Amino acid sequence: MAGRRIVVVEDEEAIRRGVADALTYSGYEVVEAADGETGLEAARSHDNGLVLLDLALPKMDGLDVLVELRKTHPVLPVIILTARGSEDDRVRGLKLGADDYVVKPFSAKELLARMEAVLRRTPDRPHPVQSITSGGHTIDMARSEVCFAGGTVTALSEMEAEILRHLASGADRVVTREELLSRVWGIQDHNLETRAVDMHITRLRTKLDAGTGAERVEWIQTVRGKGYMLGKDLTIKCRDVHGESAP
Ligand code: CA
User: Fold this and answer.
1) Is 131 within 8 Å of 73 (Cβ atoms)?
2) What is the pTM of this model?
3) Structural domain of residue 77, as residue ranges?
4) Which of 52, 100, 174, 185 to pair with 194, CA 20 to 30 A apart?
5) Residue range 189-211: mean pLDDT, rounded
6) Span 215-225, average pLDDT
7) How many whole angstroms from 86 Cα to the centroid of ligand 1?
């Protein structure tokens, strides 16, 4: 199955084996590489779904692997594995076209959640989130519109729908402004534009609040100093459940 083959490029054997075992257990096919050169070759030579790329690697640095890989595979999903505190590497990795990053030490659960979020974004996959509801209000993700309990229907812009999709696929994880920037806008230069994210969220909240009237629904929660997540009391429905409004 396309997207199920994962290349794990990591020189620390214990980490590589641990990741490989967790992925195999979750039904992925795994190709392992212990240095940058082998990793680049493996990433290029199969029909891979995603690459997990350590940065400090023998023979060829992870960022160099990424640069070379992007020349031939501009959209192959890549998640970089970075050490705590190496924020510069993380930012450089995202600028060079990595889709996301995971900071070591990470849990298998966190890694799988990140991978699934990245894989969901690939164009040939229908997004599994169908609707987000609160009481009688329903955000229909397939139609990009909100059906409020009072009967009003409001269209969402493409950006607004994308923001909600990414927050919903983060499940109960905080989504940072940087992540939203790179995922929704495709902007990798995080220093410049994070305020644009706040402005869009504010506008989206205003639009949602207008439809719920006096009733306060927390659609999007701000997590101070971190980013955003969907409100805790919302119901997220996934594939094959239609976003009909509740009676
Ligand atoms: Ca390493």
Assistant:
1) no
2) 0.52
3) 5-124
4) 52
5) 83
6) 92
7) 13
When divided into structural domains, the chain yields a total of: 2
Question: Are 236 and 133 in the same domain?
Answer: yes
Neighbours of ion ligand 1 (CB under 5 A): 11, 54, 56
| Residue 181 sits in the same domain as residue 101 | no
Give the integer Cα–Cα distance in Å for 38 and 1: 23
How many angstroms does the Cα of residue 191 sit away from the middle of ligand 1?
Answer: 27
Ligand 1 centre to CA of 157 (Å) is: 42
On whether both 169 and 102 belong to a single domain, the answer is no
99 lies in the same domain as 167: no
Of 71, 104, 124, which residue constitutes the final position of a domain?
124
Q: How far is the CA of 61 from the centre of ligand 1 (A)?
A: 9
Q: What is the pLDDT of residue 187?
A: 66
CA 177–ligand 1 middle distance (angstroms): 27
Q: How far is the CA of 64 from the centre of ligand 1 (A)?
A: 14
Distance 45 CA to ligand 1 centre (A): 22
Question: Which of 91, 124, 157 represents a domain boundary (last residue)?
Answer: 124
